[in-house]
Design brief:
This protein has about 375 residues and is mainly beta. It has a domain of about 230 residues. The protein has a 28-stranded parallel beta sheet that branches. Strands 2-5-8-11 form a four-stranded parallel beta sheet, with no helix packed on it. The longest helix is centred in the C-terminal third of the chain and has 12 residues. The protein is globular.
Length: about 375
């Protein structure tokens, strides 16, 4: 247990392995509580050391310009809880300048982040400009609740890769306030970044009762991404507010001379949300081919949201038409764009999609612009 410690420009553990074979650092059942660290780390720069940590409890800590774990080699984390912690320009996990030239893997399972102030910090920051053939990032069973948040997961890579995999599975993000940032951001350099083969797979996401102001849930910008396969599956987004140039999912893919694989969106539910004063949509996707299956949008800007989130009380006899007039006049629901999505694509397919109870003005449900002639295929669409 690390208890009531103060560190300044220090590290608890720092290992440098100069041997050609890879070493391993294993830690189980560690607790970090009531500490105050400045420019310090628990684990720092394990070159040629694979790190494996299990059952970690981190709570009631103050961090400034610090990283609890700062490494440059493979890492595996499981059963981690972070709570009541206030990091300032800090990270839980910082991976900088990946040293493996052949294959790097980051595997994190069962991480809970609860009641933290992350407004100027990240949970995970990955940055590298060193040559690596393959990067695999697996984030499985995440729960992020009651946090003021910055970019929770940020990946910045300035390298040429043969293979990039980013797997996000079984993630719950609830009751967070995010201002002017993205929750998950993958942003390659536009100057020297190219993937030869890439997979981004996001499965079973629940995004519940959050407030985004000039923010994005997913910001995936692929300036020169080649052979990319993106899958968004089983995503449930309930009771949250988006205000002022916000959007939930933003994907930009520009690679005119490369093979472009489709974006897959399956079983996506938007329900009981507010979207006000924005020129954006819930989704902004620019790519070659988009395939959507079982996309449902219900109750956008309806009465229960104003009662719960804006602290507005209505007369019980107020009907929906009168409520609409009040919302348009007092709250200025002026959304200039596609309510559900803005798509710039060559081919779009939408199967088994439903849109109901949507309250917007000067807006479309889907705003679609096709490249060249374009192909638009709608099958079994329901609008109420």
């Amino acid at each position: 247990m690390i208890f009531e410690s103060y560190l300044n420009n220090s590290s608890m553990i720092s290992i440098l392995n100069n041997q050609p074979q890879e070493g391993i650092l294993i830690g189980d059942d560690f607790t970090m509580r009531n500490t105050s660290w400045v420019n310090s780390n628990l684990i720092n720069r394990t070159v040629q050391i694979r790190t494996s940590l299990n059952n970690g409890h981190i709570y009631s800590n103050l961090l400034e310009n610090s990283s609890i774990i700062s490494i440059s080699s493979k890492i595996s984390l499981s059963q981690i809880t972070i709570s009541e912690t206030s990091p300032l320009f800090s990270q839980f996990l910082s991976i900088k300048q990946i040293t493996q030239s052949s294959k790097f893997r980051c595997n994190i399972t069962n991480l809970d982040a609860i009641n933290n102030d992350l407004s100027s910090s990240n949970i995970i920051l990955i940055f590298s400009s060193l040559q690596t053939n393959s990067i695999q990032i697996y984030l499985i069973n995440f729960s992020i609740k009651h946090n003021n948040s910055n970019v929770l997961v940020q990946i910045v890579l300035i390298i040429v890769l043969e293979k990039f995999q980013y797997i996000l599975n079984n993630v719950t993000i609830s009751r967070i306030l995010n201002v002017d940032e993205s929750i998950v951001q993958i942003s390659p350099s536009q100057q020297s970044f190219s993937f030869l083969y890439s997979i981004i797979d996001i499965t079973n996401l629940q995004f519940i009762e959050n407030t985004l102001i000039q923010s994005t849930l997913f910001d995936l910008y692929h300036a020169q991404l080649q052979n990319l396969i993106t899958r968004l599956t089983q995503i449930c987004i309930i009771f949250h507010m988006l205000k002022t140039f916000s959007t939930l999912i933003q994907v930009v893919q520009q690679a005119p001379q490369c093979v472009l694989y489709p974006y897959y969106i399956k079983n996506l539910l938007y329900e009981n949300n507010a979207l006000t004063n924005t020129s954006n949509s819930l989704m902004i996707i620019r790519s070659d081919t988009l395939m959507m299956n079982n996309f449902t949008l219900n109750n956008l800007n309806f009465q229960e949201l104003w009662i719960n989130h804006y602290d507005i009380q209505f007369n019980g006899e107020l009907n929906q038409d009168s409520l609409n007039d009040f919302v348009f006049e007092a709250l200025q629901v002026k959304n200039n764009g596609g309510g559900a999505g803005q798509f710039l694509v060559s081919n779009i397919t939408c199967i088994n999609c439903s849109f109901s109870n949507i309250l917007v003005i000067d807006c479309f449900i889907l705003d679609i612009i096709t490249k060249s002639d374009g192909n638009i295929n709608f099958m079994n669409i329901k609008v109420n």
